[in-house]
Design goal:
Elements (H helix, E strand, L loop, with lengths): L10 E5 L4 H12 L3 E6 L2 H7 L7 E5 L5 H15 L4 E4 L14 H29 L2 E6 L2 H5 L5 H21 L4 E8 L4 H4 L3 H9 L9 H12 L10 E4 L6
Parallel strand pairs: 1-2, 1-4, 2-3, 4-5, 5-6, 6-7
Keywords: Oxidoreductase
Pfam families: adh_short_C2
Family: Belongs to the short-chain dehydrogenases/reductases (SDR) family.
Length: 246
């Protein structure tokens, strides 16, 4: 089951593209003919899954919360490709524990990667997109960012912040041919594998469609929001979650 997109001539940047949802998103863009820039801090996995010889894919081993590194990478990508039409802010981590046990580091690390990384990439790509009068930014939020989850005050705050950031930047850039949207996934990845079997069964039971998605199903939703044809959609959070958010 797959949908074909055509992103020939486009340059797509994907953060956290070494594995999971980000890998599937980057692969979808590559198959659809785009030039792809994959930003991920896991240099070893990045090199394994996207060797230097991979056609039309360039990798940048960096931490998305490092604004100077993000600025330098985006400058390099824009210079090399002549523009960046699509940016997907997907990189993420969890550092779960109840709020009264949460360390400063658990709090700041999660906020820095999700919210800080989304800010850093957006701030750097918007001028490139404005100059071209065209852009598609897709952020990755979560059900937890809308409804909360025990043990995830840091993650919920970050993902809730991403929703507010998405709507604000959508308003700020709407006059420049740029759309900014978010997806809220529910997919079987390493992040979900960290959950116990019992908890996973409980979580699956709450999904109306009765299963977690394959990460590639997230890429299909991103493809829609990244397409030229989705020009009239901005500032939305699209749940790709089997009905969980109903
Ligand atoms: N899997 C789900 O069901 C689910 C649900 C809701 C939201 N999400 C969100 O989807 C996104 C992808 O999640 P996933 O399940 O594929 O996770 P994953 O752990 O499989 O992949 C995350 C990727 O991000 C990279 N990364 C982490 N911190 C980084 C940093 N500071 N700089 C650069 N790269 C970094 C990792 O190296 C990894 O390649 C995350 O934002 C996550 O919060 C996932």
């Amino acid at each position: 089951m797959s949908i074909s997109f055509d992103f020939t001539g486009r340059t797509a940047l994907v953060t956290g593209g070494a594995q999971g949802i980000g890998f599937e998103i980057a692969s979808m863009f590559q198959r659809a003919g785009a030039r792809v820039a994959v930003l991920d801090r896991d240099e070893a996995v990045l090199g394994e899954v996207w060797p230097d010889t991979t056609e039309n894919v360039t990798t940048y081993a960096l931490d998305v919360s490092d604004t100077a590194a993000v600025d330098a990478a985006i400058g390099d990508i824009a210079h090399g490709a002549g523009g960046i039409e699509i940016a997907v802010n997907n990189a993420g981590i969890t550092r779960d524990t109840v709020v009264w046990k949460m360390t400063d580091e658990q709090w700041t690390d999660v906020l820095a990667v999700h919210l800080g990384g989304t800010f850093a990439v957006t701030r750097a790509v918007v001028p490139v997109m404005r100059a071209a009068g065209y852009g598609r930014i897709i952020n990755v939020t979560s059900y937890t960012g809308m409804h909360g989850a025990i043990g995830q005050a840091n993650y919920a705050a970050a993902k809730g912040g991403i929703i507010a950031f998405t709507k604000t930047t959508a308003k700020e850039t709407a006059g420049f041919g740029i759309t900014v949207n978010a997806i809220s996934p529910n997919a079987e990845t390493a992040m979900v594998a960290a959950v116990s079997k019992e908890r996973l069964a409980e979580m699956t039971a709450t999904v109306p469609l009765g299963r977690f998605a394959k990460p590639s199903e997230m890429a299909t939703a991103v493809g829609y929001l990244a397409a030229e044809e989705s020009a009239y959609v901005t500032g939305v959070v699209l749940p790709v979650d089997g009905g969980l958010a109903m």
